[in-house]
Amino acid sequence: MLNSGDILDGKYEVIRTLGKGGMGVVYLCKNIILGNLWAIKEVIQDKKNIDILTEANILKNLNHPGIRKIVDTFYANNNLYMVQDYVDGQTLKEYVKENGIIQIEKICRIVSDLCDIIGYLHNQNPVIIYRDIKPSNIMIMKSGKVVLIDFGISKVYKNDMPQDIDMICAGSNGYAAPEQYGSGKCCMQTDIYGIGMLIYFMVKGRTPYTGIEPLLDENYGPEINNKLKRTIQKCVKIDINERYALVEDLKEAISKILPKNEKVKLEILNDSNISKSVITKKINIKIMNRSMYDRSIKIFFCFTFAIIASIYILYGNKKESTISNTADAKEIVSPIVGSSSIEQNSIKEFIKKPTRRIRVVPTKGISSSIAQ
């Protein structure tokens, strides 16, 4: 066990202990030359650690924002030390202890991020199975993004590996799948089981007592979202074939639980590891664009209705004007023609006939010629 002020490899000063696990201790260290901070994991060599280089060999070839990179390895004090990126945040276990049960929107965001990380591991060739999903191995950064730590019992699986390769028990009680207790070979669904138990932890605020607990409806309160409950139960099925086949399937199921606006946030948060202010701005813009689209549709229909109404009113006024003019003409003619039916009929015929223009010819020249 190292103390504050100890120097490793001639350049890393130990500041404090970040965490302890079954595979070693992690320290926050400062590079005394450059002044930057690193998380250095001390892997203790004992009989249980069959291959202490497993984690280092796995991590050195990975490149994902949700996985800490290894920048250096060295031996000291008969132990292996791995220098990794320092993540400024707290574990999910610490977060729940401090804040209590997590709201469903945040649960979905955490699970979605975790599915991306695990999916990245499962898509490696050969496949990497993490095998130790639990609250203390999930880091929540200040930006809200998720980082997966401690690959101590992760394993690379090749298709030609013998079936009895996992007869050694590996995992954490309450989160390890049945096949991790020596009953079968671990697979991608092993990690899906762990995610299901992790969701249950976030919903209940505690580790499940047994693997059967999340499968029973009576262990969920009425406030638990039914879709989320069914998702958990599908993840933790005892039969591997009854679980989600891929983490992508689990992520899709989680996305269907979110409200509309939260889906927008999730899409943006999954784009990249960007600052909080930029995320907020993008979310507001995207939601505003959708609102503007809806408003534009409403305006279009209102404008169309107004045009139709205007045409109808104008057409109606024109018709009324024609009828009014005809009535006025009748009123003007009536006093002139008197009561004679013949004259009235003549006037009616006159009104019906089209108006003829009469050209007036000057009479001055004609009068002069007659006078001569």
N-end to C-end Cα span = 147 Å
H/E element order = EEEEHEEEHHEEEEHHHHHHH
Helicity, as a percent range: 40-55%
Mean pLDDT, rounded to whole units? 78
Shape: globular
**Major sheet description:** 6 strands, antiparallel
Tell me the name of the CATH homologous superfamily of the largest domain. Answer: Transferase(Phosphotransferase) domain 1
| CATH structural architecture of the largest domain | Orthogonal Bundle
| CATH topology grouping of the largest domain | Transferase(Phosphotransferase), domain 1
Please identify the top-level CATH class of the largest domain. Answer: Mainly Alpha
- Estimate nothing, just give the exact number of structural domains: 3
Extended strand count: 11
| Sequence stretches where pLDDT stays below 50 over 5 or more residues | 162-168, 271-279, 332-337, 366-372
Which structural traits does this protein have?
372 residues; alpha+beta; Phosphorylase Kinase, domain 1; Transferase(Phosphotransferase), domain 1; 3 domains; six-stranded antiparallel sheet; disordered C terminus
